[in-house]
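Case study 2.
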Amino acid sequence: MAHLDLLRDLIILFGMATAIAYLMRKARQPAVIGYLLTGVVAGPFGLRLISDAPAVEVMAEVGVALLLFTIGLELSLDKLGKMKQLVLGAGSLQVVATILVSLGALVWWGVSLRQGLFWGFLVAASSTAIVMKMLQERGEVETLHGRAVLGILLFQDLCVVPMMALLPALAAPGAAQTLRILMALGKSLLVVGVILLGARYFFPRLLRAIVLVRSRELFVIATIFIAMGTAWGASQLGLSLALGAFLAGVALSETEYGHQVMAEILPFRDSFSSLFFISVGMLIDLHFASHHIGLLALIVTAILAGKCLAGAGAVLALEYPVRMAALVALALAQVGEFSFVLLREGARLNLAAYEPYQVFLAAAVLTMIAAPALINAGPRVSFWLGAKGEPHHSRLELDRGTERLEDHVIICGYGLSGQRLAHLLRSNELPYVVVEMNPRLVRSARAKREPIYFGDVSNPEILRRAGAAHARAIVFAISDLAVLPRAISQARLLNPELHIVARIKRLADARKLRQAGASDVIAEEIEAWMEIAVRILRLYGMPREAVAAQMAGLREEDYEMQRILPIPGQPLRHLWHLLPEVDLELFIVAPRAALDGAELRGLDLRARTGASVLAVLRESPEGTEVVHNPEASFRFAAGDQIVLIGSREQLTAAYKLLERPPHPLEIRQAGGEGLGHA
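Prediction:
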């Protein structure tokens, strides 16, 4: 009845994994951590609930193969070609730097060279699953730092191939080590070539024939056959199951069936790969970890600090600013999923003894737990570095001559939107200047005589040199929330009359940009659905004028939900992100309230709460009357909207005071010493 024992084990594991992963997601932690903890709890060092651990490990190997197969599917050659600077440039620098730093530290510690190289391989990888999930949730995948992170992660994934191939060579005796490494590389290249050729020319034809049958079930079976068959073939030729599956995914990524293959394989991948992380968690010895807590803390700190330095250095080497380097470094500081794959293989080859194996397992899990907090801290660190100013300079930066430009448009970002806008302005002979942070793109555009310069638009000196003080408009053709609020605030400070247009992906983020001082905010999700709606309504024959009028109303309604109160002459709006503790709030005087008819001086608002009255909005037959900085003798009336400014604590205290103003006796005692010059 061994099969029933295995079924019982799977029920226990999937049940516990569901509960623990659910709790992890509620705590805003990645599901991978939940799977690892499931293994810890259910494994031999926990509650010992599993009776057939070897069978679970076999299924875990299948999960690793499917995981690498889908990673290969996502590594399209077209994507790699478009990101070659980040993939090959920043990616290679980050991986090599991390391996060398780890190797140097371990050799100094007394570890042998080949084992130091092995541990360097493990530290170099970062978690593609955790990082990309976080960036997607934050809407940062298409930002410049998001693309840099993705490029480095892609290179790390590619490096798994040679790393897996080199592990048997590292495990060889010292005398034969060099020869083994050369033979392993040569054999790997040969096998990789054979698999890629077979998968490139045989599997697409097989899938094409199956698609013609119009059977989804047959397509699913064929997909599993391709993934697992290639993995098995690679293992027979001396490579690992996972490596073979990865190569099959890469080969199929360029076919017309790649997306459908991915859709069909995902449920199997998620189910089996969760077993892999559970099986890794089973190997974590909590008793051992608790007795080496000091060593664990030291190693976790060293990994996070070392990977941050390596990641930042890789980005800085490509002439990107420190602010962006910090975002990338913090995103890549953790240890990745493929490190566990390499660790299991290294343990099988006797490259990892029990104690270092346990220390690394625990340290890796701790770095993954810390990953969300580090990624969330990225924008704050970036903001702080931007406020300190950029020490980095480039020969492509704006020169002083651009400060003399007048009545021009500043385009921040030279992506597709920035390029189209520049072309439109050039066609209409309107003056403009472009500021871009990608040095390669700047060089390419300058070769075409484009007025483009390198610079970080969140730096006030860059905006000043771009002539922001005398510009008519500035357009932020980027959607990076880590940059936009500060950049908009700085532009508004330099020129209070400047018309600022900002682009953002989500409507929910529009309020932040309006608070920073943006004149117009364009939300991509709103404009996209508007265009879809226009085409559908026109399809049904609705007149163009009627469609335009209806869309205008809907657009105004959607954007109005995110507007801050438009107060003429509001002097502090552009300082919003420079004074993060300051807030604005409205208090409306209700009919027959105690405040109705009271004088401002009698409240003594500033002395009692610390908040000040910035303005009072009062409706009249002629429209809305705005009283700026009301005098001490100003009397409130029902319906008045009182604009308060102060910290959140001060505004809370002010609300309580306005809801229950002082007794008339207190007002008479206060005399004329109340707040009159807020």
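Residues 391-396, 564-574, 667-678 have pLDDT under 50 and may be disordered.
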